[in-house]
Structure formats: C-alpha cells, structure tokens
Amino acid sequence: MGRWGVRQAPAADLYEHPQRARDGYKLVPDKILSIPNPRTEPGPMGAAGSGLGPLERISGSRTSWLARETGARRRWLKTYRYPLPWGPVRGAFRNTFLALSRAQREFRALEHLAGAGIQPALAVDLRERRWLGFLLESQLVLEDFGGSDLARLLADGAVRDADLAALGAFVGKLHGSGLRDPDLKARNLLLRHEDGAPIWAKIDASSSRISPRGDRWDRARISDVVALHDDLHSLGLEQERIDMVLNAMQPSPAAQRRIRSRAASRG
Questions:
Q1: Whole-prediction pTM value?
Q2: What domains sit in the chain, N to C, each tagged with a CATH number?
Q3: Among candidate residues 184, 250, 166, the one with its CA nearest the CA of residue 220
Q4: Spatial distance between the Cα atoms of 94 and 82, rounded to a whole number of angstroms
C-alpha cells in the first residue's frame, strides 16, 4: 500500500513501463520529481527512455500548455500545473489520490483505445508530482498522430463522405469498447489517410470514463453522440452528411429516435 492508502507502483517501474499504471494503480510516485519548464529546458523524459528533445510551446495558459519537439520525431508534451495554495484542491477530490487526474484519464483512454485496436498507440509516458497526496504537476508525452483535426478539415472543405462514414464506425467501436467521452468534439478528432483509407483518432480525453461493456446506446453514450451531432451542426455540416456519421454507428431504432429527439430539443 502507498503512503495514502492506495496501491502504489514503484516510480522507476511506472516510468519505464507506463502501461503498468493501469488496472488498479494510482500514479502516486514515491518521490518528488523535478519537472523543468518546457518553454526553456529540454524535456524531462530522457532518463526514462522517452528521449524528448528541445521543445517549442504551441498553446496554453499559465497552468496548462502544449509543447512539441522541434526535432524530426515531433512528439508532444502536455503539462498540467496546479500551483499552491489553491491549485491542488480545485474540484471535488479531482487532484488528490482519491480520483484520477486529467492526465491519468487521458493516458488511460489512449492506452485503452490502442489496446482494443481502435486507433494507433499515442500514449508514451506519464509523470506526476504530488505533495501529501495532492497533485502539483502532470506531464503526458504523446506520439504525433499526424493529419489534422475534423474542425479544421470541415472549414477547408476537405472531408469526404467516406471519411464521415469511417468516423461513425470509429465512434461506434469507441463506445462499444466501453469508453465514453463527453468531449466528443470535432477539434478532438484527428484524421489522416494511409493508402487513401481514412484513419481516425480521439485525443484530449481528459474527461473520459471506461465502464464495463454493456449497452453501447446507454444514456451517457447517447449524450456523447448528441454532443458530436450538435458540434458538427454548429460547424456547418449539412444534416444529410451528419446522418452519414450517425448511420455508420449502426444505432438501434430506439437509440436513433432518442438521438434525434435530444438533438432537436437542444437545437
């Protein structure tokens, strides 16, 4: 048991084998880590084998930001910082050992989707720094998927009908695997093509949950689909093409009625 009553994996073991952070482990390292500022210093993962080089900050705020390697490999480093005194206690247990952090949820979701063969493996490494069980800082290293996000592609008019059908099939598999994500939005869905075939990936899954496989058209997953429907509509995608996405998910007639009813009530 760890110092705060949770299962605790040795820090070195977690960082060399980040997949072991799943299945019952909370990421509660047994030592405080020194995490450099990614705007001015090389990435901290070199000692653990991740090999991050110099980083360029792409976007973010004072407490969270995204940086990208400037070399040929182009991995991404996502940092969440929770400065004292109030940062570590924001939210109901969210930044304590009693609940998964945003970075942990995203890492777990990416590992889950890759393990199920739904999308390429993107999660590389995860480190967290804590004080008395309270989260001070998280860093998540991700592979570069390539391609572009759906919101940008729609703005450029670069989405084919075949891409939308593949998106619906992708979301259906995502839900069928037991994952749900209330942030199922166009900006978080990436598309690339391999030999002309569309390949989709879901990123920014910090609000995701994994539940036992059951009814893939339960209330929570219908809410995810309605959110995607609304987002595509707000981006100007025609209803006929939105229906291509929905139909490729193969919803039951009852689920289809509920999706359309809820989408209509919110429109």
A1: 0.76
A2: 11-142 (no CATH), 148-266 (1.10.510.10)
A3: 184
A4: 11
